[in-house]
UniProtKB/TrEMBL annotation:
GO terms assigned for molecular function: helicase activity
Pfam families referenced in this protein's UniProt entry, alphabetically: DEAD (PF00270), Helicase_C (PF00271)
Protein name stated in the entry: DEAD/DEAH box helicase
Organism from which the protein derives: Alishewanella maricola
PANTHER family for this protein: ATP-DEPENDENT RNA HELICASE DEAD BOX FAMILY (PTHR47959:SF17), ATP-DEPENDENT RNA HELICASE RHLE-RELATED (PTHR47959)
Domain Helicase C-terminal residues, every copy: 235-382
Keywords: ATP-binding, Helicase, Hydrolase, Nucleotide-binding
Motif (Q motif): 1-29
Signal peptide: none
Compositional bias of kind Low complexity: 393-402
Transmembrane segments: none
Length: 443
């Protein structure tokens, strides 16, 4: 199949051609016709498989071909959980609106409210936004949704995690009419919390799913490494920096403080690195992301702020210095590499404080984590069923560690592969504060 087969407007096809894409990805082939039929949809496929165009193209087609419900109101609203992702989507959208009568606006937190108000007065056809700031404008009556034809939620489940349900409900209520089409996109829509979203927002939805969230991503090599404590994790990080062919690397950690400290560890190891956290002001956040995307530095250290959706094609490695508390975030974090057919490495460090998260991740993935060891940096910690001091000795006795594996659900000593000294990782957060799940949205 080629893009011409999808029956899209020639202006859209020219933009696709400009991107150099000849063939729609699998999810685009499945989702585009389904969106064009006009039904509410839940669309899931692995990270990096082209979901953005799977909604932008049919959305644009509908806006170009059908008569607007209202002359003044926004016709389509795309919501994303973070400012960074909203910006990325907006950048893609701009290409598609060029040479068409469709206009677009980006409305995210951290930027001047009055400027945004002026922008909204010009009645853009499509708005790309983060939910919090968008709702502020809705309440302030700078925008109206009675004529909204399409509501699109990218990384829909993450908005739920971040506590955006009240905003989504309010937006839904403001745009409640039977002609509205609602689309949910994510790599992980098959966990039960998502039901709350689908019940609230979707009417008789059709499901387009290519694979499921727990399926192994064939382009991402995943490794887990035990670590005893924070110092040990830092030594493992230094090992990775020394031995892995890193082009660009994203390190995920639990706290903002850590994001800043680990950036220093990377710099000490000869890598250019920056920390991205919600503590930075919007100008600084923009600068960090722009420079990283432009390859101006090699390592981005961040919290889950950057786990979703960001499409950075030079990222060869992802390190989970701490494991995420929400297991689906693991899938999204590692999905910052191995995008659009490229290969990636994901290394997760597992210390005593990561144990509960590891078990949740194994449950979500429905398979045990595969552990590797780094020569000279082998952890005594192998799981919590025995005191840390004894764990090293116990691991040597295979019978004992097999029993332990049964209890803990982690791989037995036999499945722990001795890896060449070259390959290594990290992924836990000993001694660190738990991830802050914001109840109050940041945007
Ligand atoms: P997802 O949202 O599924 O994680 P994205 O929409 O961010 O994935 O797309 C991942 C990458 O694939 C992007 O760099 C995008 O430009 C590229 N891409 C999208 N569609 C195609 C296509 N049809 N052919 C080749 N590359 C594509
Ligand atoms: Mg995406």
């Amino acid at each position: 199949m080629v893009f011409q087969d999808l029956g899209l407007d020639p202006r859209l096809l020219r933009s696709v051609q400009h991107l150099g894409f000849a063939t729609p990805t699998e999810i685009q082939q499945e989702a585009i016709p389904a969106v064009l039929v006009g039904r509410d949809l839940m669309v899931s496929s692995k990270t990096g498989s082209g979901k953005t165009l799977a909604y932008l193209l049919p959305m644009m087609q509908r806006l170009l071909k059908s008569r607007p419900l209202s002359k003044q109101d926004a016709r389509a609203l795309i919501l994303a959980p973070t400012r960074e992702l909203a910006k990325q989507v907006y950048a893609q959208l701009r290409l598609f609106v060029s040479n068409t009568p469709v206009t677009a606006a980006l409305i995210v937190g951290g930027e001047n409210f009055n400027d945004q108000e002026k922008l909204l007065k010009r009645q853009p056809t499509v708005i790309v936004a983060t939910p919090g700031r968008f709702l502020d404008h809705l309440e302030h009556k700078s925008v109206f949704l009675q004529g909204l034809e399409m509501l699109i939620l990218d990384e829909a489940d993450r908005m739920l995690d971040l506590g955006f349900m009240p905003q989504l409900n309010a937006i839904n209520k403001a745009a409640e009419h039977r002609l509205r089409q609602t689309l949910l996109f994510s790599a992980t829509l098959d966990h039960t919390e998502v039901d709350e979203l689908t019940v609230a927002l979707l009417k008789n939805p059709f499901r387009v799913a290519l694979g499921s969230g727990h399926e192994q991503h064939s382009d991402i090599q995943q490794q887990f490494i035990f670590a005893d404590n924070l110092t040990h994790k830092e030594a493992l990080l230094a090992h990775v920096l020394k031995h892995e062919p890193v082009k660009q690397l994203i390190i995920f950690t639990a706290t903002r403080d850590d994001a800043e400290r680990l950036a220093t560890v990377c710099v000490d190891n000869g890598f250019s690195a920056m920390g991205l956290s919600a503590r930075l002001n919007q100008g600084q956040r923009n600068a960090v992301m722009q420079q990283f995307a432009a390859g101006k530095y090699q390592v981005l250290v961040t919290t889950d702020l950057a786990s979703r959706g960001l499409d950075l094609l030079q990222v060869t490695h992802v390190i989970n210095f701490d494991l995420p508390k929400h297991p689906e975030e693991y899938v999204h974090r590692i999905g910052r590499t191995g995008r659009a057919g490229a290969k990636g490495q994901a290394i997760s460090l597992v210390g005593p404080k990561d144990w509960a998260s590891l078990q949740k991740i194994e449950g979500f993935l429905r398979r045990p984590a595969e552990f590797s060891e780094v020569e000279g940096l082998v952890a005594r910690f192998k799981g919590p069923t025995e005191p840390v001091e004894k764990a090293g000795k116990a691991a040597a006795k295979s019978a004992k560690s097999t029993t332990k594996a049964k209890h803990s659900g982690k791989p037995s000593a036999k499945t722990v592969k001795k890896a060449p000294a070259k390959v290594f990782f990290q992924g836990g957060d000993d001694g660190l504060a738990p991830v802050r799940r914001k109840k109050t949205p940041q945007d």
